[in-house]
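Sample pair:
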Amino acid sequence: MSKTTPQNVRDDIVHQWLSGRTFSGISTNLGLPKSTVADIINRYRRTGLTCPARIPGRRRTACHPRVVEYVEFLKTTTPSMTASEVRNRLLTDGICDHDSLPSLRSVYHIFKRDLNFTYKKLSKIPAESLTARNMERYYEYIDIISTLDATTLHFFDEAGVKRTTGNRDYGHGVRGQRACEVQRYASDVNFTVNLLHSIHGVDHFNILDGPSNGFEMLHFFNEVLNMTNEFGLPILMNGDTVVMDNCGFHHNRLAENWLRRVLAERGVNLLFQPPYSPELNPCEMCFRRMKGFLRENNEFTERFTELAIIEAMGEIGRASCRERV
């Protein structure tokens, strides 16, 4: 790559040209190729600048640490913010002026190289979960559950399963034309899986044909209270705690009162998670693994949905349960 003509020489070329010298005269006087003199003067005539133009493909200069730090702040607080929006914030917030504002490409370089950020699906947090009351309930829950023995905790939750889980939503097609594929009818026929899960593994689950309700929840716990584990001991013992979310029918006046009463007769406590906090229930991770198995075996799932669910739940081992509790 040829060397850039020094700035003082470039200024001298323009000064001599403005004084009336010809390209050939300037070239002879400074010992430069005539083409170099012509390029510098032509750039001055087009732009009014004597500085060299940016050379395509040149290695990028490092952004100022203050810019990188502010971009990190913006993307950490709002991960969905685009590069164009980041540039606008750098300008409006006074971090950069028009001369020092990084290009879109430079902003992308900051994302990828300086901050090591990657593009991924967002984990969305409901704004309602951050109200003062809900945050208070969240910390109250953390304070309570942190004092309990992990071996005494049993988490309960429900999940819906559709027969047509394996249908795909995206595919390739010719540009400008729709991509069409014959698939199974996505009916509303579904199942509900009730799950009680602990550090010891899957305590118990059942499968309902259709949605769940307060009566089905009570029926589920009636089964659990009459069951024993592999060692011949009751699944729910004195001193244990059942944890569940704030689903509407969980708080049904009759259902909640009955459940608290029958659990209390066994010395078992009932604890509700704070609102908008599904990540606090490890059953969610079990359901994620279950649905992944169903998607991988979509033909089997479509024909024998209940058997596929049973097979999927059998894949959830005791070791993985300990990681999630």
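The two ends are 61 Å apart (CA to CA).
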